[in-house]
Design brief:
Layout (H helix, E strand, L loop, with lengths): L1 H4 L5 H4 L26 H14 L3 H8 L15 H10 L1
Length: 91
């Protein structure tokens, strides 16, 4: 903030809230639709279920904590509607 954009104080002191949205999903595990392996719906489902199960164990949560994650769940495209709305309003 200060070095690259010329801020003269910490960013939290020089900026303000312009709006509040529903939760924003900032970390995802995504797969390529063009990957032959990922085109297999059974594999995608098994991978997703395995990652969700990791987050349900004490040991798994300990590992996920190192990257700031608290577990996983399935997402739907509609989960990102509020983010899309904000992005549209910012343009």
């Amino acid at each position: 903030w200060q070095a690259k954009l010329g801020g003269t104080a910490p960013i939290w002191e020089q900026t303000g809230v312009i709006g509040v949205s529903d939760k924003i999903f900032n970390d995802t595990i995504s797969v390529s639709k063009s990957s032959k392996l990922m085109q297999d719906e059974g594999f995608r489902k098994a991978l997703g279920e395995a990652l969700i199960e990791i987050g349900k164990t004490e040991e798994g949560l300990k590992i996920l904590k190192t990257i700031g994650h608290k577990g996983y769940d399935w997402a739907r495209a509609s989960d990102y509607d509020s983010e899309r709305k904000i992005q549209k309003e910012l343009k």
